[in-house]
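User: Some background: our group keeps a shared notebook of sequences we're curious about, and every so often someone picks one and asks for a predicted structure to add to the entry. Today it's my turn. The entry only has the sequence so far, pasted here. Could you supply the structure so I can complete it?
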Amino acid sequence: MNFTELLQEKRVIFFDGAMGTSLQPYLRAGLPPEKLNLVFPQKVKAAHLSYIKQGVDVIETNTFGANRIKLDKFNLTQKLKDINYHAVKIAKETAYSQLVGASIGPLGNLVQPWGEITSSQALEVFREQIEILAEAGADIVVIETMMSLKEAKIAVVAAREVCDLPVVCQLTFGEQGRTLTGTDAETAVFTLEALNIEVSGANCSIGPEQMFPVVKAMVSCASKPLIFQPNAGNPHLVKGKTVFPVGPEEFSEWAKKFVESGVKIVGGCCGTTPEHIAAMVKNIKNISPPVKKHLILKGFSSRKKIYTFKKESPLFLGINFPLELMENEKENFDKILQLVDKAKEKGCSFLNLNFAKIPQNFKISSFMNFLQQNTDLGINMEIDKPSFVYDALSELEGKGLVFLSCSSWQEEEILTQIKKWGAAPGFNIYLDKKTQIKKEIEIILQKCKKIKMNIEEVVVKITLPPFSQFSFSFADVINKIKKVKSRIPVSVILQLNNFSTTKI
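Assistant: Of course. Here's the predicted structure to add to the notebook entry:
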């Protein structure tokens, strides 16, 4: 049975418990757990077997920190392939019917703008590790303990580029219910699901009680299965020894609450032992997660807020970002901050960035990072170059909305990049007497269907001519748009051009 088939079963799926803390007794100073795949493989095998005996469905490889950046700190870069390859082989040889999840942890240093690692470097490092694990025979890619939504997105894209395995992605949250870079649970699951992964969720950092609010928040807006693997509580030192306070029975009761709330997959992280997993499996193996139907949210997000096109949502407004400020952001630092503050003061929710007129040598990556360091506002983009789409979306910490402003021969390439990075595609329609709104939208949808993009993600911006040139009924326009929307599942933005009340 593969993972996709397993997800279809009407029962709870069980992942294993902690690997790192299970192997801790066998580690010498300065030796990472991943080195044991080469020097003490029998210890790794025993850890897997201890969880398999408790009835889990998935075991995770001992590769959490087996990426180039982390291994380099232990002078083990030259062993990267062997460490990852043998990890999968050990797990596969130990498993009975269990699937093997390739554990992919964070890089150890944050991605820009919060750290020094560039997005392109991060993408390359994740690709390298995931490709080895996939070729070795892993069944699932399990991206876990991500402190940054941006790093998580990059890891997912890397997985999609090098293999076709199912992807599970888990962020890690603090007790305040946010990641280290400030993302809340709802925004996290909204953004991750847009990348078309199979499962999203949370693990590590906090115990099950502290994680429960994150569980409830994600369940309220998720449209796909969720996974949660909390720690056995927050660790503390007792006589020089690290102790995790949550015992097996308490852990299993919280896992039961998770499942009863709508969670499909449960497991454990730091401090959880085979006893924790045994109690969890025994307590909830006969419980089926409730089936909940959720409205799929359409829209975009910053790293801290979702902007949806739901009917009951309040109106949100954007502000156009001046071209001259974008081209010389270092010289215009104070002006940019003033504009951003003014936008927030006036109730604007996002910035409109028009990259369609920017020269090819414009450093879009550094500009995007600069903005995200200095504002929490959402970012929409108008783009005419495929390279700009990649550079912009790989830096965006959230779900993007990209309006195409390009030649027809570039559209498919740009749409492919938009799909890859989980953004929503936007299209412009300029309205005049000859414009057939329904026909224009149908042409747009055909372009999206060609690359198998979800057409419900499509956003159409209909721009009206200046009111001085407005020679047809505004009410008729609105009614035509409503009629089209009742039959075609797209979101519509109506843009008024040079609006003036004196012209109505």
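Suggested note for the entry: The first strand starts at residue 13 and ends at 14. The two ends are 64 Å apart (CA to CA).
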